[in-house]
Amino acid sequence: MGIDIRLPLGILFLLLGLILVVYGAASDASLYGQSLGINVNLYWGVVLLVFGALMYALSRRGARAAARAENIPQSPRSSGH
Predict the structure, then answer these.
(1) What distances in angstroms separate CA 53 from CA 20, 34, 59, 61, one per listed residue?
(2) Which of 49, 68, 78, 80 could form an S-S bond across to 17 if both were Cys, CB 3.0 to 4.6 Å?
C-alpha cells in the first residue's frame, strides 16, 4: 500500500480548526469590526474542522478497505479456453 496523505492532512486540519474555533470563541467582539462584525476565525475554524474530519474519515475508510482487500483470497483466474 502506498502513502495515504489523507491521514496527516486530516489531523493537521483538525488541529488548525480547533485552534481557530477556540480563538474565535474566546476573542473580543470588537476585534471583528473590520470584517463587518463577522467572527471570521470562528467560521473558518468550523470549516477546517469539517474538512479535517472528512479527510480523517476517508483515511480510516481507505485503510479498512485496504486491510479487507489483503485478507480476501484471490480467486484463480480461468484460462479462458
Answers:
(1) 15, 30, 10, 12
(2) 49
